[in-house]
Amino acid sequence: MRHEGLSNPIAVYPKPPFKKQSQPWPGLAGGMDPRPDHGEASYKGSGRLAGRKALITGGDSGMGRAAAIAFAREGADVAINYFPTEEPDAQEVIAYIKAEGRVGLAIPGDLTSEAFCRDLVDRAVKGLGGLDIVVSNAARQQARESILDVSSDDFDATMKTNIYAPFWIIKAALPHLKSGACIIGTTSEQAYDPSPELYDYAQTKAATMNYVKSLAKQLGPKGIRVNAVAPGPIWTPLQVSGGAPMEKLEKFGGQTPLGRPGQPAELASIYVQLAAADASYTTGQVYGASGGAGQP
């Protein structure tokens, strides 16, 4: 959706109630109704990331897809990681990247494997000819009414996807990152206002916010910036593949002052800003986008 001039943020995108719908985890954006907007038709680049080389996890859909499209239109070459079952969404993203004349690499795999995370970085560096933007965005979110319903396997999968994977990826990427490079995490409003049904997921988002601030202090002297984006309710496959109870899904985003969920396209410019060289004094920060609710 394209917005010229002034537009009412309440009315530019769909509002609840939404249709009942569910997909097997991790879900596909192409199967959602309404289909999310990732900026496919609206994002315009202006060369802010010309010559940059980015790796984005979860780059097939949601905020990762929006960032991948925006980065390419800003002049960056982009490698995306995604779960193998998300191939249809991923190939759409690669087509958008290549349409901008940029290198687009599709690297499917399971982030709960340390060996794969190391291989992911190695393949991205070789395929792009270097690396200077790392966006750790992929996440697992499964709603459970009670802590008693969260199995050890569930808990382990969430922790490995959301916390271990960024740890492994950043460790593997760091030797390749030079002064001026940046790392961007995706946290959530769940970090500071957790929902009762997201016991394990919310913990990982609080940890993400914390590691971003810690790592920013550690890597600042090296000239490497570390920041995060904290979305509120955003219309992505996370929600329809077990991330939200059906009754919450139907009303999703309706509780915000804007009365609707956000679309991934509405966060693309935040990722671009955090990656761009003119944000050179921005590190250890968390940029929120939650429709008027929550913090920061």
Mean pLDDT: 96
Largest sheet: 7 strands, parallel
Q: Which bin fits the share of residues in helices?
A: 25-40%
What's the total helix number?
8
Q: Give, in order, the helices and strands.
A: EHEHEHEHEHEHHHE
Distance between the termini: 27 Å
Q: Strand order across the biggest sheet? A: 3-2-1-4-5-6-7
Uncertain stretches: none
Return Rg in Å. 18 Å
Q: Structural class of the helix and strand makeup?
A: alpha/beta
Please tell me what the overall shape is: globular
Number of strands: 7
What amount of the residues lies in strands? Answer: 5-15%
Structure commentary:
By secondary structure, the protein is α/β, with parallel strands linked by helices. It is built from eight helices and seven strands, in the order βαβαβαβαβαβαααβ. A seven-stranded parallel sheet has the order 3-2-1-4-5-6-7, sandwiched between helices. Helix 1 runs parallel beside helix 2. It starts with 52 loop residues before the first strand and ends in a 7-residue tail after the last strand. The mean pLDDT is 96.
Jot down its keywords.
single chain; 296 residues; alpha/beta; 7-stranded parallel sheet
